[in-house]
Amino acid sequence: MQSKTIKSSIRNLTMAVIGGTIGVMALSGIAQAAQCGNTGAGFPAWVQEFKKEAAGRGIKGNALSALDNVKYATATINADRNQKSFKLSLDDFMKKRGSTTIISRGKSMKKQNAALFAKIEQRYGVPAGPLLAIWGMETGFGNYLGKQHTLSAVATLAYDCRRSEFFTNELYAALQLIQRGDLSPNAVGAMHGEIGQTQFLPSSVIKYGADGDGNGHIDMVNSRADALASTANFLKAHGWRAGAGYQQGQPNYGAIQGWNAATVYQQAIAIMGQAIDGK
After folding, report:
1. Which of 188, 194, 244, 277 has the fewest CB atoms within 10 Å of its CB?
2. Cα(187)–Cα(42) distance, rounded to whole angstroms?
3. Phi then psi for 140, rounded to 5 degrees?
4. How many CA atoms lie within 13 A of 29 on its CB side?
5. What CA–CA distances, in Å, run from 234 to 43, 198, 200, 209?
6. Who contacts 239 (Cβ-Cβ below 8 Å, separation ≥6)?
7. d(CA 140, CA 145)
8. Domain that holds residue 10
9. CB 172 within 8 A of CB 24
10. How far apart are CA 225 and CA 228, in angstroms?
11. Among candidates 141, 129, 166, 169, which has minimal Cα distance to 269?
12. CA dihedral 72, 75, 77, 83 (to 10 degrees)
């Protein structure tokens, strides 16, 4: 779920933190002492100022000390500056994404994890097909999670003036995940700070994350059960109705549209999901 598909509702996220409550509600209404910048020169000073603010809002322990290890992520800035809209045709997009491989592998993964997908569908009403299509496109079924240090990526984008307000929210969400033990301070992921096997931004983990394996934590990186249950929960929260169709023009296609703003991406999820489900 790439950063270009961010939903405006996340902006008003309220985050309860173990040991205290952080009021991260409509950060636009909170005066920011740390000043944004457009080059890496001011980043170290910004981190120190932000650290003071974070401590004042209840961030502590290993979450607070994790800020000492963030670096200005030049690769993230370069990726953010060079985002391109989807201009490929559906056929070209499907070929580029390896749809044939995803469908074939998805069918095998569905059989191998039949009990898990049955449990998820019973709970959220979302069948295996679209979940496997998303999983396959986002990370090759958990094999390509990204190499960028997550906290550095999010901190860099919070400091950068382009979308500072939005990513300040994401930075607080990432710190909350670290503080409650659901994200390693050393976690790596995609360029914009997307986490885990289905690439959730930190605030989406806070809002839609689900404990699919029942161990009391939401581990989007190491637990496929958590990642897939969270993805199903996301789709349900975006209007998914159990038993309804999910192709274009059908009731659940709108939930797929909530996942990614690109039309070809939405179409690919629906087409590959249907092929995996054998319908």
Report:
1. 244
2. 24
3. 60, 45
4. 7
5. 33, 11, 10, 8
6. 251, 252, 254, 255, 258
7. 8
8. 1-279
9. yes
10. 5
11. 129
12. -160
Record the tokens describing residue 85, joined without a space: 């809209």
pLDDT, one tens digit per residue, over 211-267 is: 999 999 999 999 999 999 999 999 999 999 999 999 999 999 999 999 999 999 999
* Contact (Cβ atoms closer than 8 angstroms) between residue 195 and residue 201: yes
Give the tokens for residue 124. 């959220």
Q: pLDDT grade, residue 144 (50/70/90)?
A: very high
pTM score, whole prediction: 0.85
List, as one string, the DSSP characters of 107-122: HHHHHHTHHHHHHHHH
Rounded Cα gap, residues 210 and 132, in angstroms: 17
* b/e sequence 215-254, b meaning 16+ C-beta within 10 Å: eebbbbbebbbbbbbbbbbbbbebebeeeeebeeeeebbe
Task: Report the number of distinct structural domains present in the chain.
Answer: 1
Hey, which residues does 127 pair with through a beta bridge?
none
